[in-house]
Amino acid sequence: MEVKDVIQRGNTLQAKFGVTNYNTPFATKTSPDYVISGTAVFQVKVIAAQVNNGHTNVYNNLIFVRFVKLRQDDDLTYTIKFSSNELGIVNKSFISDDGTWHLVHDNKRQQYSFDVTVHMDIVPSASSFAMLHEDTELTDFELRGEDGSIRMHRAVLAAASPVLRRMLGGTWREAAEGHVDVPGTSRATLQNLKDYIYLHILPNVGLEQLLLLASYYMMLDLEQKCVDKLVSMLTAENACDLLEFAAKHKVTRLLLAILECVQSGAVQVNEMRDHFLRGK
Questions:
Q1: Which of 13, 45, 147, 223 has a beta carbon 3.0–4.6 Å from 214's, enabling a disulfide?
Q2: Which top-level group of life is the source organism from (predicted)?
């Protein structure tokens, strides 16, 4: 099995596979491990068989995929949408599991190729908080930024973050006073945090500051989604700035995702170098 044109960009993987059965009665070929966004492994396996029916050779090919979470102590659940134009598959979904191989296609050709596009996402936790997003009557806690504040519900905050849960459920001063100051954070970033907690939506700008807030409050799902969206918009022009940001703030998920993107060729090192030198 030949693999080429592999491109990884954040939580998306694209590749082209070619298979030829050289009149082998039975053979199994497995692709390398493709680590997606530093959190899960995707693989392709092809089983090829050939028999002679007395008149001609008959080929039977089975194509399998598997999708496994890297860290079993990771509390998040991941899903992929698997597509292949040449196999006629569109957004077939798989949830990260124990390594089961899933049959996705079979054919009877001696030689064939197929494309693969895999998009990974986090399975959102069930939420009934959307109806409370615009509520003002029952809000009982305030997040205060540098230029303003937003009001939220204690129970919703506690459900979203283990850090906030400890704060709100303990004897901390903030719990008694009904507010917490978030230094270095704008009201816009706090509003983006609220929008994600209640509605599971992300902004198109300001993702870096939202990522820092998610990391501070140990909101792993929001942290990963910010990383995925930032890397999906990665270019040679912003790659150096994002690398510097990730290193400065020790955001390991973002740093590794950018390096994977560069290593796969989705962003060219030469283009990054040219942009960096022009900026000097």
A1: 223
A2: Eukaryota
